[in-house]
Amino acid sequence: xxxxxxxxxxxxxxxxxxxxxxxxxxxxxxxxxxxxxxxxxxxxxxxxxxxxxxxxxxxxxxxxxxxxxxxxxxxxxxxxxxxxxxxxxxxxxxxxxxxxxxxxxxxxxxxxxxxxxxxxxxxxxxxxxxxxxxxxxxxxxxxxxxxxxxxxxxxxxxxxxxxxxxxxxxxxxxxxxxxxxxxxxxxxxxxxxxxxxxxxxxxxxxxxxxxxxxxxxxxxxxxxxxxxxxxxxxxxxxxxxxxxxxxxxxxxxxxxxxxxxxxxxxxxxxxxxxxxxxxxxxxxxxxxxxxxxxxxxxxxxxxxxxxxxxxxxxxxxxxxxxxxxxxxxxxxxxxxxxxxxxxxxxxxxxxxxxxxxxxxxxxxxxxxxxxxxxxxxxxxxxxxxxxxxxxxxxx
Length: 395
Description:
Blueprint: E1 6-7, E2 10-11, H1 16-26, H2 44-49, H3 69-76, H4 82-98, H5 127-137, E3 140-144, E4 156-160, H6 201-212, E5 215-219, H7 224-231, E6 236-243, E7 251-252, E8 255-256, H8 268-276, E9 282-288, H9 295-298, E10 303-308, H10 316-324, H11 364-370
Parallel strand pairs: 4-5, 4-6, 6-9, 9-10
Antiparallel strand pairs: 1-2, 3-10, 7-8
């Protein structure tokens, strides 16, 4: 897919250098290139540069097609050679045959109940097992003081924060996930999908707690007073916070697209502080689209464990319970660096074109080059296993 941005001052979907020379030439890419939605700017420019399929065709319904009859005209007047059209068709059809779409391919018609009656085949099968494994294996244990985790049948647990539950209006209540209500399992935007179901953390923890005889106390809002009250009534408290973002055509709680800062949403720092002030075994679970600054939380002595659970999807709660209770050891590693302060990333919002003067010095490379010590480095993640090295011979 060719993207929205420019490459060396040329729109990517019009870039001969990017598509023909690098992708199809140097890398010998055999498939077809499709435009990101409305990333095409010209008829002949995109065709000659190597774009093979235009999406969505017109400008989201304005009936102005850059291809279609315009492409036919460009072919008829010699602006685009017939060989280029043949290459487009060959690449698209080759992919169609390669995926076996020419015979016995599942239909996309019919009605099923798994997705709320909106139609389509039930393709779930045993996918929930894989979804759980993927979510579980991506969970990163950032802090674990005195082996606070895994939990060992605690007498009582306080589950705190709106991020612990499913959106009360339903997991798919917000179109394209365009809200941050309930547990964060997916960011917002056009690349989202409806949940066939969503296991929230509280749901899965209740099931495990019932088997263990653990009493559950809840505060499923982000109220600091309510959270502190629940935390003071339990032996261990788990606070759920999140940080959301998505595509710029959606505005969530006054925020369009990317985040305005690297703090947790819904005053998450204050919620953790209120809980940790009254509970000596406070565990923090983070669902986020990227790094957040954790200094306020880590400064609290009663925060004994911190888990980064990312964007876990439909098996969110079950995957988390696997790690919280130790049926699976945590083995996730951070896919980015968590800094001690926002300015450590060395970036700022820029308008207009960007020549990427930083080169490859982004994330951990930037921290290394600038001599900045992060809070948690790229690839960080605790586990419960011990690896003795004393038997290794010295080099």
